[in-house]
Write a structure and sequence with these properties.
The complex is a heterodimer of chains A (468) and B (61). Chain A has 14 helices and six strands. Chain A is mainly alpha-helical. In chain A, helix 2 (47-81) packs antiparallel against helix 13 (403-434) and helix 10 runs antiparallel to helix 12. The chains are: A mainly alpha (468), B mainly alpha (61). Chain A binds chain B through residues 212-213, 216-217, 219-220, 224, 227-228, 231-232, 234-235, 238, 294-295, 298, 333, 336-337, 339-341, 343-344, 346-349, 351-352, and chain B through 12-13, 16-17, 19-20, 23-25, 27-32, 36-37, 40, 43-44, 46-48, 50-51, 54-57, 59, 61.
Chain lengths: 468, 61
């Protein structure tokens, strides 16, 4: 069997970036959650907030570490599998990645040490400042990466002469047309991810009858964040949709599952299709009548553009974009329903006693991660066959590397990443099984390296440093 | 007695579900951008008010 290097390079990048994005998503969300919880602790002096902080700090630290390691790999992969892309896009993308390291990575790295090990080595306000700086660093980091990726989706501010790309306006490169909307979409997705994780773990404790105070507070916090954030996410998502429809119509045409230049009127909203890309038609389609017109054109009889509006050699693969979009959007609808249900149950005083709702929260624990991954699949597969939309095709972006080299490095990545995920899940489940440590009434932690990752280790009175 | 309680609960659930669907459509921009912004503000402020007025974890265990 002959292996195609371009397919292998794409599989390798898809695998490594899919694995990577899970961890920054958690880190961005959990860093903000930890900063909010610490602020509540400082404001109320309630040790329960410190207990929550210490519990989630351990999981955040592991996710942060894996996110950093797997992120560094991606930069090298530009050279390994996509050298022509790196050569052409380097003048625009390179400085943005360097700026991410200088402005965000150093900020996070500097304050992360204080956040993890400094609970009683520095004053509480300085520690809170460190938590805020880490949370801000994760958003700044996301901002640069989203700017680079959005430039690949909606390139601007560059000129091309003889195949060489020159930046003519940095402002337009950084603030390209899709970045102002995709950044809040991604950051809100990360916050929702953390909110569902927190609420899900709390719900699991409630169902098991364990750690009741901790569980109630985390479910209350998680569901409150969900109900506020999901409304914002639906609003931003609609704006992102409109932006991509304007700048990258082929992606949204593929996402809606219509082939003809104009759909029937009124248009249904398809949930299941079996697309036949070769014959440019659906073999099977199941949808809800009228809903396509209402949701996509905001009218009762509007028509939706189909993929035949895009030349065949510039079409993405409909099936991948369509189902990734349906997973993301379907989960957003369920998240919205969870947010509304939580408000209703809160009003009735049944937030912690409705077992169906608690089970729903448990099942929704990974929903943010799945929705974020699906969203990135929409963004990346929908941009195909371009790597820089309208400028450089993916097949022209490859490195002249033999298939065997790509295959061996792909196998190595799969093996190493399997170890990462096993270690992460093992320790995370162990932390969750053990539950939170009792919060010391003096609200100080030992600060030792060992104890920072052991939520069950309580501070021995001898180690507590008395202030004043 | 039990039946009337069940009917009341069903009515509450249906009303909440309906309100959720309407808010979802409004925030998605089905009725235009202005309604979307207004719907978003009402929903977010409503959620904040409910969460602050009913902290939910204060009840005795």
């Amino acid at each position: 069997m002959r292996l195609d290097p371009s397919i292998l390079a794409r599989i390798q990048f898809a695998f490594t970036v899919s694995f990577h994005i899970i961890f920054p998503t958690m880190s961005i969300g959990l860093a903000a959650f930890l900063a909010v919880v610490e602020a509540l602790w400082l404001k109320t002096k309630d040790p329960l907030y410190l207990q929550i902080y210490r519990f989630w700090l351990s999981i955040f630290a592991m996710g942060f570490g894996i996110g950093v390691v797997t992120g560094i790999v991606l930069s090298f992969e530009f050279g390994l599998g996509f050298a022509r892309f790196a050569e052409m896009a380097g003048p625009a993308i390179g400085p943005m990645i360097a700026l991410e390291v200088l402005t965000a990575f150093f900020l996070e790295a500097g304050f992360l040490g204080i956040m993890l090990f400094g609970l009683h080595r520095v004053g509480p306000k300085l520690h809170f400042f460190a938590s805020c700086m880490v949370a801000a660093g994760t958003v700044i980091s996301a901002s640069w990466i989203l700017s680079a990726n959005s430039w690949m989706q909606t390139p601007a501010g560059v000129a091309i002469h003889d195949g060489h790309l020159t930046v003519v306006s940095w402002r337009h490169v950084v603030v390209n047309p899709s970045w102002p909307y995709r950044l809040p979409h991604m950051v809100t997705a990360a916050y929702l991810t953390a909110s569902f994780m927190v609420a899900g773990v709390g719900a699991w404790y409630l169902l098991r009858g364990k750690h009741q105070h901790f569980a109630r507070r985390t479910v209350a916090l998680g569901t409150a964040f969900v109900s506020v954030l999901i409304a914002g996410q639906v609003f931003i998502g609609d704006i992102v949709y409109g932006t991509m429809l304007k700048y990258q119509p082929s992606k949204m045409q593929a996402a809606e599952g219509f082939w003809e230049k104009n759909s029937q009127s009124p248009a249904p909203y398809y949930w299941i299709i079996i697309p036949d890309q070769n014959n440019q038609r659906n073999r099977f389609a199941l949808g809800i009548p009228y809903l396509g017109s209402i949701w996509l054109t905001h009218s009762l009889d509007g028509r939706v553009e189909g993929l035949k509006n895009t030349p065949r050699d510039s079409q993405p693969i409909m099936g991948m974009v369509f189902y990734a979009f349906r997973i993301m959007y379907g989960l957003a609808i369920v998240m919205f329903a969870v947010g509304v249900a939580s408000l209703w149950l809160r009003l009735r005083g049944r937030l912690f006693s409705s077992r169906w709702f608690l089970w729903m929260l448990v099942f929704m624990t990974p929903s943010g991660i799945i929705a974020t991954l699906a969203g990135w699949y929409v963004a990346e597969t929908g941009r195909q066959p371009w790597v820089i939309y309208g400028i450089l095709r993916t097949v022209d972006a490859m490195s002249p590397v033999p298939a065997q080299a790509l295959l061996s490095s792909l196998i190595a990545f799969v093996c190493v990443y399997a170890v990462f995920i096993i270690v992460f899940l093992t320790f995370t489940f162990r932390i969750i099984r053990r539950g939170p440590a009792e919060a010391p009434p003096h609200a100080e932690a030992s600060g030792s390296l060992k104890n920072a990752f052991r939520p069950h280790v309580l501070d021995s009175p001898a180690r507590v440093v008395k202030r004043g | 007695m039990r039946n009337s309680k069940d009917v009341g609960r069903l009515a509450g659930l249906t009303g909440t579900a309906l309100a959720g669907v309407i808010f979802f459509f409004i925030i998605m921009g089905v009725f235009g951008q202005r309604f979307a912004i207004a719907g978003l503000l009402v929903f977010v402020l409503g959620a904040v008010v409910i969460c602050r007025a009913f902290p939910a974890d204060g009840a005795e265990l």
